[in-house]
Specification:
It is a single chain. The protein is an alpha+beta fold and about 325 residues long. Helix content is about 65%, strand content about 10%. A five-stranded antiparallel beta sheet has the order 4-3-2-1-5. Helix 2 packs antiparallel against helix 3 and helix 4 packs antiparallel against helix 5. The longest helix is centred in the first third of the chain and has 29 residues. The protein is globular and about 60 Å long. It starts with a helix and ends with a helix.
Length: about 325
């Protein structure tokens, strides 16, 4: 009887330790440390939501709200696979990073974690110049969280100038454009069709986005429509468009700056054109393709303005 009692007691202790141990593990995984921009103060708790409306952090019975742009960093325990993906991304091994992030994405349960992972997946494809997969990743991401933070939205795979494409890419974009009801995906698909045979349909789709609640969507759609007016806009109108660009979050200004640079170049305002191209390339570059094209055009504008030395430096 004594041994039976000891056995039952041992089992009970083991079960209790397992229960509380598993709860402790779950709690430690749920708990995050949020570092605030500027003050570098930290907050701890469990994230219940994180999007453009802000970060909502659960602390016991209370929920703290932090403005999205006030968040500098979020630290939380990551799985071995997630850490491996981060290492691959840091080393520029985007194929392997995307594969590992996609595996982690499939197992993530929290919406904010899926948003983090989805953004990384998109960044991998943007860095590779794989437009089809970048657009697909962005479409998936905005279905999960249509109200992304500015930082998460920054790698959005928009087209800002005509590029030679292949038929398979065009077919994927055309099919997505025809079938999507997602306004953010519509913006991206339309941007890639704006220089082709479906220009009129793309323009109509972009115009349909001008009255959306999300001002970022509206402003980016406006900037895409500027691409159809490069040869017709007056200097006064072109100068006023700087206000539109400044109304965008800094993370989203590169593409609009590039288009404005094209307008100034067409008007023969070479110094103004060079400035906008350099902003597109250096201030908040996201796409390497856009950065390379912007630097090339900045060099041309500087040369046309008589700034030979500066032009050569842009070409290096």
């Amino acid at each position: 009887m004594k041994f039976r009692w000891l056995f039952d007691y041992t089992c009970l202790v083991f079960c209790l330790l397992s229960f509380f141990g598993s709860r402790a593990c779950a709690q430690s995984f749920d708990d995050v440390v949020v570092t605030l921009r500027g003050s570098h103060a930290t907050l701890e708790g469990r994230i219940t939501m994180f999007n453009r409306n802000g970060l909502y952090l659960r602390q016991g019975d209370e929920t703290i709200h932090v403005e999205a742009n006030a968040v500098l960093e979020i630290q939380f325990p990551k799985s071995t696979r997630w850490q491996y993906a981060d290492q691959c991304f840091a080393m520029g091994n985007y194929d392997e990073a995307a594969r590992a992030y996609e595996e982690e994405f499939a197992h993530a349960s929290e919406k904010w974690q899926k948003t983090f992972l989805g953004t990384r997946i998109m960044q991998c494809f943007v860095a590779q110049g794989n437009e089809v997969r970048a657009i697909g990743a962005f479409s998936t991401l905005t279905r999960i969280e249509p109200n992304l933070t500015d930082e998460a939205l920054a790698p959005i795979p928009l087209a800002w100038f005509a590029q030679p494409g292949n038929l398979s890419t065009y077919n994927v974009v055309q099919r997505g454009f025809r079938n999507t009801s997602n306004p953010w995906a519509s913006l991206v698909y339309a941007s890639h069709l704006l220089s082709g045979a479906q220009r009129n349909e793309a323009v109509a789709r972009l115009k349909s986005l001008l009255d959306r609640k999300d001002d970022r969507l509206t402003l980016l759609a406006q900037a895409q429509l500027w691409r159809t007016e490069i040869t017709t806009v007056s200097l006064e109108v072109a100068q006023s468009r700087r206000e539109t660009i400044n109304a965008l979050p800094p993370e989203l200004r590169s593409g609009p700056c590039f288009v404005l640079g094209q307008i100034f170049a067409h008007l023969g305002e070479w110094d103004a054109a060079a400035l906008e191209f350099l902003k597109a390339a250096e201030v908040h570059p996201v796409s390497e393709k856009l950065k390379e094209e912007a630097l090339k055009r900045a060099a041309q504008a500087l040369k046309a303005a008589g700034h030979e030395d500066e032009s050569r430096r842009c070409s290096l």
